[in-house]
């Protein structure tokens, strides 16, 4: 765990140095202003969408920028000659951006609604949603050469997880939306407005955690393939 902690601190420094914290500050202010101008009747629905978009879609694209910056600086390849294990590298990535997402979402929520009705399910939903999309995005980004290439590939890939959002907004009926990670995310994130029974919360958390494990395995395989390819080239 010591290696994970050291890698986590290094990731936080890397993100801060490259302006990710400043970017999140502007994102937070933008969403707070946007939600503040909405009528009270529509705030819960829009707040749920905004809060989902931060740990999922924003985190998904931010991790792409981080990985491509690290590839450009040779950090990925250096894993071959350092004591840092691939598992430690992935866990540090999986925890650093979710921490930033939770802080951002809490700032948005408390600025608009105060501390009223905050729940553990809400915080866990934010955390695991960010973990999933960070790892999934990492697995996509490691296979791309440029940021343009990442956006070209990642945007269609993200559309796979859109159906529960359409169901939530009453745009399209999706009976099995609970099987999607975003379906579980929405149910957990909207608990301040639609509380869940304890057993239902466990089910949704289990689905989201399961998807996060799959994303971890996908990211691990992707990075391992990248490193193995470099070894063969060398």
From TrEMBL:
Domain of life: Bacteria
UniProtKB keywords: Membrane, Transmembrane, Transmembrane helix
Transmembrane regions: 21-39, 45-69, 90-112, 118-142, 149-166, 201-219
Protein name, entry field: Fluoroquinolone transport system permease protein
